[in-house]
Amino acid sequence: MTSRPTLWMAALVLAAGLSPAPAQEPAPAPQPTIVSPPNAAAAPGAEPLDPSLSPECRVPGSKLYTLAKLRAVKMALKDKRPVRVLAVGSTSAGPGASATYPMKLETALERSLPDVDVVVEARGLQGEIASGAAERLRSMVADVEPDLVIWQVGTHDALARVEIDAFGEALDETVKWIKSHEMDVVLVDPLYTASLADDAYYSSIVRKVQEVAAREGVPLVQRYEAMRYLSGRAEKSEGHMLGRQFRLNDLGLRCMAEHVTRAITLSLLQPDTTGTAGPVLKSDLPAAVRDPNGPQVNPTPDGH
Amino acid sequence: MREPNAIDFWRGLALVTIFINHIPGNTFERYTYSQYGISDAAELFVFLAGWSIGIATRGRDGAPEPRLKSVLRLLSRTIEVYRAQLTVMLMALAMIAGTALILDNPLILEWHNAGTFFADPIQTVVGVVLLSHQLGFFNILPLYVILLGIAPVFVLLARLSRVAALALSAALYFASLVEEWNLPSWPGEGDWFFDPFCWQLLLVLGFVLQDWNRESDTLRIWARRLMPLGIVVVLVGIVLSVLELRPDPLLVPEPRLIFTFDKTYLSPARLIHFLGVLLAFQAVYGLVAPRMGPAVQYLARLGRNSLAVFSMGSVLSLGGQLVRFWTGGGLLVDILVISAGIWALGFTAWFVEWRSRKPRPRE
Predict the structure, then answer these.
(1) What's the pTM?
(2) Would the CB atoms of B137 and A128 count as touching at under 8 Å?
(3) For bias kind Low complexity, which ranges apply (chain A) (predicted)?
(4) Fold of the domain built from segment(s) A38-290
(5) Do residues B24 and A162 lie in contact, with contact meaning Cβ atoms separated by under 8 Å?
(6) A13 touches chain B (CB under 8 A)
(7) Which residues contact B112 (CB under 8 A, 6 or more apart)?
(8) What Å distances lie between residue A248 and A180, B41, B104, CA to CA?
(9) Would you kindly state where each structural domain of chain A is located, as residue ranges?
(10) Nearest Cβ partner of B328 from A94, A122, A161?
(11) How close, in Å, is residue B343 to chain A by CA atoms?
């Protein structure tokens, strides 16, 4: 397991060095040597990458989000008042990033929702959802009174290895509570890293977040799937002194604002009963949006 | 070294409780008293700190020491606690970074607020030194630094009038509760986990009650009489926390912090519950001390050396968290982690006392 990525990287380096001469290799990476992560990009006829994202962050839509309606945000847009967003979780956008995640998020949201004023408040949330943090989140929400809560959830509970069911119940209850106060929620599941790819417990935390998002009908940003996808892409850019996983992590943090924004803008286009049109997007809509049957759930993250 | 007493005993118990509760998800967490009430060990720890200030700033005969000496004593203690916080923070960050490197796992860098440090060390290192950047579970000592820093005001004022000191403290508490005054976190948004403007009330309360208790029997007599009330409060607290009944912060009237069960702002419900706990358990030490000698000795020794034990406890509980994550946890790991930690806390206290007993080597 540990030697595989090294081998694969060596193969890549070789391939890159020799690439002009043997032209018989169409795919960017030699697939058979890869155990984890899977390289979906290489498969011909695969879902196209979402072109609205910046090149390094490009992921096919189905790997990136499941969509659902955002009623409170739509209401704010209709009333032409600023959209208040509470971003909960880590505020970093990666080492040395020129802007923090909340700043990037605000910029990205305002760019894709023209003529809309977005105000992002960001808060770190200490502790586990299963014990105490859910309570603190409620205080935070009461304090900010946002239209939308964007919640990076699961990391601390995963680190504490709390019981899956206790985590799921507390998360479900909290999401219900936010919704009951006519606020929208977008969940962001925890990050992907190779050393946890085969950790059944970690996968079940990620799955639990997906489950709750589907059950409660709230949009989900699949950070885990997106990063797993990104980790499978050939890397032409600079390495990272701490190795691939840390580089991937930086990339995940850098892309998070974009990914979240994409899920929100597409969720706003979900048809609703009143039939009001959402804001116009420049790009074409991926298949996910045209599916009117509410949120779609992707296969479990540990499918290999 | 002083003999075991109730203050050291309870402080020792608070220290062990905080150690166990700072390893979230572990099996023993559900057996600590924090799970069965609205307030928890943090309240006890701060209140007893105030009580101890009362003892420390007077001679054995109860006569107040010179004012300047009290101020310098508190200043010196503030510096000690500040130094402990910096040391502990540095060790915690290194433990998190080291584990992330060894396990090749950047997820660990996201550990309770540590991500900010690793992503933006330039601002965050300043925040660490200013105490405005705190890791999760490492936020009691910054509170304690501020509380000791402002303690001279209350100590000196109480020498003129205890009522005035308590009134000033209560006024600051209520104003902060209504206006939501708190110190800001930086870098990043949000505020301190423990609001010093609110939590100072417990410190001053501890100090003033100690002072009153030393002078007259009135407090003791009334505390005995009100014991049944305390027991009722404790029972209500158990019911509320077991059934997870608490006010919805979006449904309570303004100012909402008066009505919610908020830890950051020490909302009145927590304060009342804590006072109930004090009343209910006031006689317990007297009952336990003769019967559970070794346990009382152990806890009192922790309590006598609370800063060293607390600091080591913080580092050990982080270590425990990392071990649990790495191994996947489970009952066996929890037993090992908790028992090793409890032994190490005892060793820390013993070692500090041994070191201060040991004559210094001649030059």
Answers:
(1) 0.86
(2) no
(3) 37-51
(4) Rossmann fold (3.40.50)
(5) yes
(6) no
(7) A124, A126, A127, A156, B135, B136, B137
(8) 37, 40, 12
(9) 1-35, 38-290
(10) A161
(11) 22
